[in-house]
Amino acid sequence: MKNKRKTRVTRRDVAEAAGVSETIVSYVMNGNRYVKEEKRQRVLEAVERLNYQPNHLARSLKMQKSRHLLFLTDDLRSEHFGDVMDAMETILFSENYLISLSRYRTDSGYINDLIARQFDGVFISSSSLDTDTLKQLSRAGVATVMVQRNSIDEVPENCAIINSGLYRGEKLLLDHLYASGCRRILFANRSVSDQNETFWEDPRVTAYEDFCREKNLEKLIMAPSPSDEEFRSRLKGCLSGKERPDAISAFNDRTAVEVLRITKELGINVPGDLAVSGFDNTKLSEYISPSLTTISVDRRDMAQKMLDTMFELIETGKAEDQSCNIKLIKRESTGI
Amino acid sequence: MKNKRKTRVTRRDVAEAAGVSETIVSYVMNGNRYVKEEKRQRVLEAVERLNYQPNHLARSLKMQKSRHLLFLTDDLRSEHFGDVMDAMETILFSENYLISLSRYRTDSGYINDLIARQFDGVFISSSSLDTDTLKQLSRAGVATVMVQRNSIDEVPENCAIINSGLYRGEKLLLDHLYASGCRRILFANRSVSDQNETFWEDPRVTAYEDFCREKNLEKLIMAPSPSDEEFRSRLKGCLSGKERPDAISAFNDRTAVEVLRITKELGINVPGDLAVSGFDNTKLSEYISPSLTTISVDRRDMAQKMLDTMFELIETGKAEDQSCNIKLIKRESTGI
DNA sequence: TTGAAAGCGATACCAA
DNA sequence: TTGGTATCGCTTTCAA
Fold first, then answer.
1. Which of A77, A305, B44, B122 is most enclosed, with most CB atoms within 10 A?
2. Which residues of A touch B115 (CB under 8 A)?
3. How far is Cα of residue B230 from the mean position of the Cα atoms in its chain?
4. DSSP conformational letter for B334
């Protein structure tokens, strides 16, 4: 009873209908061989009438090329991801590529499943990416473009990096805070549910540490909290203490917004008593009051670079690493 | 030089390495035939050593089943889409399915390209979905689950609908506004860039019209604006007029936020002089001031229903239509 | 110009 | 229990 796929029209059907050989149909479809005009017309007519579409699976199998990419990320729900995906999709569509997405999982069985799917390339934007995964993909001949890591020990064959500017961005923020007179700057890490992640390698933290060293400031780092509650209570602790910070550089906008909430509860004036900065330039950062100073990554630019790099990798097996355009967005939360 | 795919390990390699026939390898991999324990071990060992993964493309071609779904939507960037995708991905992962995404395009050539990719099923969440597309997919035997439309003239074979509750949601909002004493309620449609869309079929508008008829209220509908600027100027017109509305039910949160901005500019007090409601329960609606009364759709629930329906469609070719859970979220913008 | 035939990498029937 | 073989639908070489 399952007639689901019985309706599928194949090249054979077209050949029959047009009274030509199957090969001719392929030639006409691909336009790579000269076919006598009359036959070509018969084929085209049959294609139209039967609504024939060459089976992409069969073609991919034969060609060893699927025109299918995969985007792996920690957070499918972020504005950032959505914007990048959106920009990529537009380009990919015009290039006849398809893109799938999945949450990144550190599990070698999972990576093998992915390899089995025969993607031409994989994007990975994750803070918990490990070298083994990269090697695994490289060994399987899958082009891999990584985003968001500043550097990696050894970049395998068939692999390239897009530097998303986390390090540079954090530096811009800190410079700005410093220039505004802040000297006790707290770096507030986020609250997290997923304990897989290797936070301390985050370039933002590195940038913060480097900055403190340079300017000879005291390092005030709030470690990642296991829960929102924990985060709130820790932060309240920091802000109620004697020597409280005069600025908080938050891990991202989401975290910064939490900070703002708590300052409101505690009656601390922002930016009067405390400057606050975020990271990501989410919509929220613009609409919240006080509006949030933050770093914006040019997401279209990033998407473009990710794809350029990917295509180059697929073509040639090699590609230069790239860096994304970022911008400091000054708003109310750090004093005009 | 392109050794990209030379590294690919096939069943043949495993068979050779294990000293068995290719068929045996398949039997071991699929566990669907008894194989002498000793051979099985040899095969497993070879699989491990060579890091063999059955080629999913070949398998799909043979099985006429790709375990690959597609999500088509108007807006890849919305919070709603991200959340639904996220929830779906978790379930799909455990079922060994893959999902791709693409912006919905009304172009029969595009749909044909999609059909060529041999998806087992397609989700469509678009306000501009037309019956022809549906027929096309149905004819090709692709299971199709539609979201967001209240109803459609004729639902083809192999197709089901998830009612996202737009109509019910708008009614809840209007009831709430009415109960708060509002009698001149303006429905403010959004500003749009994509002129493809068939706005007037939006269930929110229908709900609004029905409501006005029921309560015998004057219909005040602001048509979709071609640009943000146009939207702002039209709205200012409405709010500066003599008989200005006492409530605005906006198309969605994004639109409502624009409304709030303009009220601020004009010095109109919300909710004192004017009640405002949104739709979607975005993060913004919670954090903005005044916080926004809105409708929340349970996105996990929606994802679950979409998948249940899809799987049933794929299995049996039929599935019941379903409705999503929605909730009225009362916040400051409509008075406490 | 054309078409038969050899794959691409799997599944599963049918004999042995 | 096993393995040869036909098949899934397509691309492309090679000979006619």
1. B122
2. 53
3. 28
4. G
Q: Which nucleotide's C1' atom has the smallest distance to the CA of A59?
A: D10
Task: Encode pLDDT of A105-156 as tens digits.
Answer: 988 899 999 999 999 999 999 988 888 899 999 999 999 999 976 667 788 9
Exposed, middle or buried: residue B263 (CB in 10 Å: 0-12, 13-18, 19+)? Answer: buried
- B20, two tokens: 């068995």
Q: Is the CB of A7 under 7 A from strand D?
A: no
CA atoms of B112 and B137, how far apart (whole Å): 8
User: Where do we find the tokens 């609250």?
Assistant: A191
Which chain D positions come under 7 Å from a protein C-beta? 1-5, 7-13
The DSSP symbol for A186 reads E
Determine whether A290 is exposed, middle or buried from the number of CB atoms within 10 Å of its CB (0-12, 13-18, 19+): middle
Burial class (CB in 10 A: 0-12, 13-18, 19+), B95: exposed
Q: Is the peptide bond before A290 cis (omega within 30 degrees of 0)?
A: yes
**Cβ B304 vs Cβ B89: under 8 Å:** no
Angle at A101 between CA A100 and CA A103, to 5 degrees: 155
**pLDDT values of chain B reduced to their tens digit, one per residue, 336 residues:** 333 445 689 999 999 999 999 999 999 999 988 989 999 999 999 999 999 999 999 999 999 999 999 999 999 999 999 999 999 999 999 999 999 999 999 888 999 999 999 999 999 998 888 888 999 999 999 999 999 766 677 889 999 999 999 999 999 999 999 999 999 999 999 887 654 555 557 889 999 999 999 999 999 999 989 899 999 999 999 999 888 999 999 999 999 999 999 999 999 999 999 999 999 999 999 999 999 999 999 999 999 999 999 999 999 999 999 999 999 999 999 996
Residues 6+ apart with CB under 8 A from A230: A191
Question: Which DSSP helix (H) or strand (E) runs through A5?
Answer: none
Residue A59 identity = R
Q: Point out the nucleotide closest to B8 (alpha carbon to C1′).
A: C9
What residues pair up with B191 in beta bridges, in sequence order? B225
Q: Is the CB of B34 under 7 A from strand D?
A: yes
**Cβ neighbours of B242 (radius 10 Å):** 4
The model's pTM? 0.93
**A 73-132: CB under 8 A from B:** 76-79, 81-83, 85-86, 89-90, 93, 96, 98-103, 105, 112-113, 115-118
- Residue A65, by phi and psi: left (phi above 0), alpha (psi -120 to 50) or beta? beta
What is the token pair recorded at A146? 């990584």
CB A52 within 8 A of CB A81: no
Give the sign of the dihedral formed by CA A18, CA A24, CA A25, CA A30. Answer: negative
Q: Name which of A225, A221, A222 is nearest A193 in CA terms.
A: A225
**Nearest-5° angle of CA B103, CA B105, CA B109?**
125
Tokens of A211: 């900055």
B265, containing H or E segment: helix B253-266
The whole-angstrom separation of Cα A190 and Cα A210 is 20
Inter-residue contact A234 to A248 (CB < 8 Å): no
In this structure, what token pair is assigned to residue B211? 């409501």
In angstroms, how far is D1 C1' from A29 CA? 45
| Phi and psi at residue A99, to the nearest 5° | -130, 135
